[in-house]
Design brief:
Elements (H helix, E strand, L loop, with lengths): L2 E6 L5 H11 L3 H9 L5 E4 L3 H16 L4 E6 L4 E3 L2 H29 L1
Helix pairs in contact: 1-3, 3-4
């Protein structure tokens, strides 16, 4: 199962702590601990659109604050940094696939009736 996770290199703005807390539900001390120990602030399942949407939301907020963060893709066999553009494209592609599946399901249901 492919997981996407995000780490933050440093806090450049105190408002950033509250943004991260809002998206992750982590406490301020836990956020600081994860940043200082280079641990993921958020981790999501690549095929879960709801989780990916949450990741996209935090990424967009981090971009607004010019935060220095990294995204990683990890599977059982590998771990590699995920370029931001690739993440955003992957998100859009998975959302489009979900919409296409829903349309196909609607068509198949109509044919069955």
């Amino acid at each position: 199962m492919t997981r996407i996770f995000m780490t933050l290199q440093s806090i450049s703005n105190s408002n950033l702590l509250m943004i991260i807390k809002k998206h992750t539900g982590l406490g301020i001390s836990e956020i600081r601990d994860r940043i200082s120990n280079d641990k993921p602030l958020m981790e999501v399942n690549f095929v879960n659109n709801v989780e990916m949407e949450k990741m996209k939301d935090i990424v967009e907020d981090l971009i607004k604050y010019n935060a220095n963060f990294k995204l990683f893709e990890q599977d059982e066999d590998y771990k590699e940094e995920l370029p931001l553009e690739h993440f955003m494209n992957s998100f859009e592609m998975s959302r489009q696939i979900a919409e296409d599946r829903e349309r196909m399901d609607d068509i198949l249901i109509e044919e069955d009736e």
